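Section: protein folds

Sequence with per-residue tokens
===
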Amino acid sequence: MTAQDRWIELRGLKFHYREWSARGAPLVLLHGLASQSHIFDWVAPRLAEHFRVVALDQRGHGESAKPDAGYDFDHIVADLLAFLDALKFKRAIILGHSWGGNVALQFAATHPTRTAALILLDGGFIDMQSDPQMTWSVAAKRLAPPRLAGTPIEQFQSMLKSHLGARWTPELASIILYNFKVAPDQTIHPHLSFEHHMQILRALWEQRPPQLYPRVQCPVLMLPAWSDARDARERAFLAAKRRNLALARQLLAQSETVWFAHTIHDVPLQRPRKLANVITRFARNLSNPTRRRR
């Protein structure tokens, strides 16, 4: 199905979103940090066969408004609530990828009656402060984005091709390029500014997911990804992810976990078919009273 690009005013700001279907139970897709709605371009058409699928460019990202402030979870959750109200979604399945998973988790904990189900796609279950060494100064240094503003587009495309290796295709490069505005001088500029990126990162560091899990009333599908660790830091990160997932399963009332093995963090770009199948199967089971935690 072909997506329709739409714009809507929410809380005095103009937001962009993409819509793949107008029928079925609402399924709202939230992208990760420094990404945008096009990351779902390969999985959304498959989901649109079963759901009313919409993907929102969150504030500061993509073609949505970029105010100077409001990058904490309270503001971003309020944006999402206004989005559901504007589209007249009484309840919706909320899928969040990466940081979008943390947004989705915060929303489900804050507005349980508006959340039919929660899908955390390699996000929403990392508690940075669970590692006592991950102080804000460490997190800010380690996780700050590269300063790509002003990079010639040809240079960036060459860098991208080298980074992706065998995964590179022109279609994939095109989706990633939506993360940037291309200036008349053919240089790229991230839609999410460095300053806004750091404001979101600070909010992410401050968020404590284990405090939110008990407040979530709906079924939760957690979809973590893993690939072979290349060094000690990656092995430690995967171990922390497994610990945090185990804690989430303890604290959530209803949850299921499906691992995506040998898969990069950007699951919608590498495993769109499997991802659509897992989500569709999960959603079909929502009405089954015999569903059991796993």
Summary: The longest strand covers residues 4-10.
